[in-house]
Transporter, major facilitator family protein (Lentilactobacillus hilgardii), 466 residues
Amino acid sequence: MQRQNQWVLLMSTSIVSFMSTIDASIVNIAVPKMSRDLQIPNNQAEWVVSVYLVLICVLLIFFGKLSDQVGRIRIFQIGTIIFVLGSLACGLSVNLPTILASRVLQALGASMTMSTNFGIITDIFPLSRHGLALGVNSSFVQVGNIAGPGIGGLILSFANWHYIFFVNVPIGIIAFFLGHHFFPRPKPVHGHPKIDVPGFLTYAGMILSFFVVAFFGQMIGFGHWKIIGLMGLTVIFLVIFILIERHQKEPLINLSIFHNLGFSFGILSAMLVYMCGYFNNVIMPFYLQDRLLLSSGIAGLILMAVPIVNIVSAPTGGAISDYIGAEKVSFFALFIFIVPEIIFILVTPQWSILWLVVGLALFGRANGAFQNNPMIMGNAAPEFQGIAGSIAALGRNLGMSMGLALATSLLYHGISLKAGQRMTTYPDMHPNWFVFGMHYAYAFSLGLILTAIILLGIVLRRKQRT
């Protein structure tokens, strides 16, 4: 394949990756306006966010396995069209049932593209440029993950919430036709795809029970007996899933893929980094708008420091990883995370706003340099590239979900410790309680980064010995 065609295809897949990722977070900032316009309670408007994220996680592995059998390009292109149609339907929605149904359609398309984009990139680029290509794609994915509140705030400053979805339509159509023109023609499919139905059903049950724990645990507390019971149910589903997969001829996930320590610890460390990124998405907008009393527009501009730096950092880190290895680049990037985490642990309203901009920019620098996708895909055998890409995307989405639950729970637990009573809302009369809760949550976030450093340190040590 000609080099210029490779880059056109990379842009096509990366643009769709950006759109499908950003739609997991951009809606958060529009929830209050959607609640008023649709005349529904805020907690029902939150379903618009939740249904998208949950369904993607349920379907990712299914489409990753299917793409290995019928072709990744075919699944990706069909997914792009479905995502565009879902986005159009979301923008045209005028009540809760229609927008929820539209989000289901959107999530179906997004799961098809997310499960195949990494595998497509490793197919069309030679091994010597996997790091650079996946690094470019990572910049789109990571910017989509962390830029949602900022971009959403900017769109809402001059248009209504419908345009958060409408903007996907022309961009998605362009990406589809670029792919249609430049992608290699998919090979004909012979025979019927083999689907591991028992494995998929137990996997879906595990994911659904996990999300119920994450969402309702924030409301009633993770120590509540109902939540503990659901945690137990999640573990039971996991055990049954593993038992089924070990005895299936065509399992949903070939568990031998996890025998590679670089792959397994790469997934875990990526999840930890995405969890930390969501601490910024959840806590920092509160701090900027409710504590520092900045407008949503100014807050959005400040939060854009992360994706702006990330755009440059990710492809640079990817190019370097082609020479020294993705694990080394990612390991060093984790140490950069320590600086912004410490700033967020110590910052007070008396500090100059410049400290926050520096902290967020450094976070973007580290986030971009962390080469999770080249690290994960590089440790997966060629026959596992499709399912490896799906597992990488699943790890990202689970990390985001766990980050959302942890950030919210730790923030209000810290506020409650300071108040001496259970708190579940912003303490208007005691704003310094919020600052204490923020510091408390970010201290835990720093612990997540230190854990990731240990995991990748073990991987590098093992590689040096072999």
Observations:
- The chain has two domains: 3-196+250-465, 197-249.
- The chain has a mean pLDDT of 85.
